[in-house]
Q: What sequence folds into this?
């Protein structure tokens, strides 16, 4: 059988949902609108939603799987992948709307090179502004600069280096990691590294996954010919305090799992700094909440 006759690998979509409201339906509808014959199925893993996000779906548009509660993003993603059998699996946030060109470039990227474990699209916000979704794993100095200045002066050189802000967003390239909001994964690569690490409830589970993929010899590609729109943070808006705590906890968990040498020696200081930063942001959030009421 020549290459032209080789059947193309199929893919499934897994959407992790938690109280995403109308955004979930928009996500599912956008996948159906692609009309890709390679798409096997759409799976919605629901983390105990109490809103109307599931009932809003068009009957038969997706297979709904109950995770048993709010088990976190990584656990839900693993449950979703386990339900499917396609060679490629797209894992998506519910607040993503896929463009008609979403799947083909990503599948072709994986088709072209068996060493590619993951491929991610260009991401833009509601205003059409490019989101820096393909980033580097920062050095200790870059991480410190981003940590200190990222929220108060986002255009500082360390944050720009970490976010790869000066890289052409239309350039197809390998990268250290991709946003977990939308990614096409090779099942065999995901299986080889043991799937998503369920110790991460939310945040940093994507960085951890790509770190392990790269360590296992798999390539990670940013493919801007594919694109999605992302309304960031829909599922976590109702729990701002828990979100802040989870973000800082996951940052330390990642460092504890992957840092070595001089960076590992800095872990106690990192833990203290993360705790101070988290408490400060919680205080700011509390003041803003009181002001709104």
A:
């Amino acid at each position: 059988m020549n290459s032209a006759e080789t059947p193309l690998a199929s893919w499934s979509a897994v959407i992790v949902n938690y109280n995403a409201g109308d955004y979930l339906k928009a996500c599912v509808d956008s996948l159906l609108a692609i009309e890709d014959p390679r798409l096997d199925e759409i799976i919605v893993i629901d983390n105990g939603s109490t809103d109307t996000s599931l009932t809003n779906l068009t009957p038969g548009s997706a297979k709904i799987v109950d995770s048993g509660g709010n088990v976190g993003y990584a656990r839900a993603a693993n449950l979703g992948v386990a339900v499917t059998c396609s060679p490629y699996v797209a894992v998506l946030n519910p607040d993503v709307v896929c463009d008609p060109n979403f799947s083909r470039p990503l599948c072709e990227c994986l088709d072209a090179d068996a060493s590619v474990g993951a491929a991610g699209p260009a991401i833009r916000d509601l205003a059409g502004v490019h989101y820096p979704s393909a980033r580097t794993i920062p050095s200790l100095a870059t991480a410190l600069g981003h940590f200190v200045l990222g929220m108060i002066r986002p255009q500082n050189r360390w944050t720009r280096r970490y976010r790869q802000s000066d890289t052409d967003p239309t350039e197809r390239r390998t990268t250290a990691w991709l946003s977990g909001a939308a990614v096409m994964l090779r099942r065999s690569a995901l299986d080889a590294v043991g799937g998503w690490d369920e110790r991460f409830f939310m945040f940093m589970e994507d960085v951890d996954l790509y770190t392990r993929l790269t360590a296992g010899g798999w390539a990670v590609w940013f493919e801007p010919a594919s694109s999605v729109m992302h309304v960031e943070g829909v599922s976590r808006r109702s729990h701002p305090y828990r979100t802040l705590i989870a973000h800082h906890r996951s940052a330390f968990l990642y460092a504890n799992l992957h840092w070595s040498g001089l960076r590992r020696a800095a872990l106690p200081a990192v833990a203290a700094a993360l705790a101070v930063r988290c408490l400060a942001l919680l205080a700011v959030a509390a003041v803003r909440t009181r002001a709104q009421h």
Remarks:
- The chain has ten helices and twelve strands.
- The mean pLDDT is 90.
